[in-house]
């Protein structure tokens, strides 16, 4: 693998992150990312968004969200030319370490139906699919 650096995202990464996710992320059936969503996340929890970079460029991301009750993993994405080298697995492991240290007893990830890369990756990381729950949503209007 190329020399990969892992670090928390900062506000200055916001534009590059939006561009990265548009290219490398799972983008169906969710609101479009905006830079201010990232700065709001970092204001709430400065260590929540973990980046992998190579030569200063973003090649991977994961959000390890902890609200004091639940631990959610979001935005797991690896740039296509860096996939299948263990980077996704590494990001998940680091995110889990953070969440465990914060007190999480369980981790969860939402995967869009039919996302085979997501399914394979979470399964490989030891996650199992729950078929007895459905997410219910309503736009906030905000
Ligand atoms: C999902 C994703 C982050 C995986 O990143 P990655 O760096 O390629 O993952 P890894 O190399 O760490 O793979 C870990 C394991 O996941 C499984 N896996 C990952 N990609 C796979 C594929 N294309 N086919 C089959 N298994 C796969 C394998 O078991 C793999 O272990 P192995 O390589 O030792 O066989 C990447 O494919 C991606 O960015 N996809 C688009 C965004 C997305 O769908 N994210 C998930 C949202 S829920």
Count of distinct strands: 5
> In whole angstroms, how far apart are the ends?
43 Å
Small molecules held by this entry:
coenzyme A
Helix fraction?
Answer: 25-40%
Provide the domain count. Answer: 1
Sheet of most strands: 5 strands, mixed
Structural class: alpha+beta
**How many helices?**
4
| Secondary-structure element string | EHHEEEHEH
- CATH H-level name... which superfamily? Gcn5-related N-acetyltransferase (GNAT)
Give the neighbour order of strands across the main sheet.
1-2-3-4-5
Q: Overall mean pLDDT score? A: 96
The low-pLDDT segments are none
* Radius of gyration using CA atoms only: 15 Å
Assign the CATH class. Alpha Beta
Assign an overall shape. globular
The CATH topology is what? Aminopeptidase
What is the strand content? 15-25%
Description:
This protein is of the alpha+beta class and 142 residues long. It has a single domain (5-124), classed as Aminopeptidase. 32% of the residues lie in helices and 22% in strands. It is built from 4 helices and 5 strands. The chain has helices at residues 14-24, 35-44, 87-102, 116-124; strands at 5-8, 49-54, 57-66, 71-78, 107-109. It has a 5-stranded mixed beta sheet with strand order 1-2-3-4-5. β2 and β3 (57-66) form a beta hairpin. α1 crosses α2 (35-44). The chain is globular, with a radius of gyration of 15 Å. The model has no long low-confidence stretch (mean pLDDT 96). Bound molecules: coenzyme A.
């Amino acid at each position: 693998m190329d020399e990969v650096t892992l670090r928390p995202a900062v506000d200055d990464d916001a534009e590059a992150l939006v561009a990265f996710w548009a290219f490398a992320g799972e983008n169906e059936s969710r609101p479009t990312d905006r830079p201010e969503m990232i700065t709001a996340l970092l204001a709430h929890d400065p260590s929540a968004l973990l980046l992998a970079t190579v030569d200063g460029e973003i090649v991977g991301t994961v959000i390890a969200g902890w609200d004091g009750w639940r631990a959610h993993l979001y935005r797991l994405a690896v740039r296509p030319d860096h996939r299948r080298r263990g980077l996704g697995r590494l990001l998940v492991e680091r995110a889990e370490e953070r969440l465990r240290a914060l007190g999480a007893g369980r981790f969860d990830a939402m995967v869009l139906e039919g996302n085979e890369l997501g399914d394979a990756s979470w399964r490989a990381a030891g996650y199992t699919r729950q078929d007895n729950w459905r997410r219910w949503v309503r736009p906030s209007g905000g």
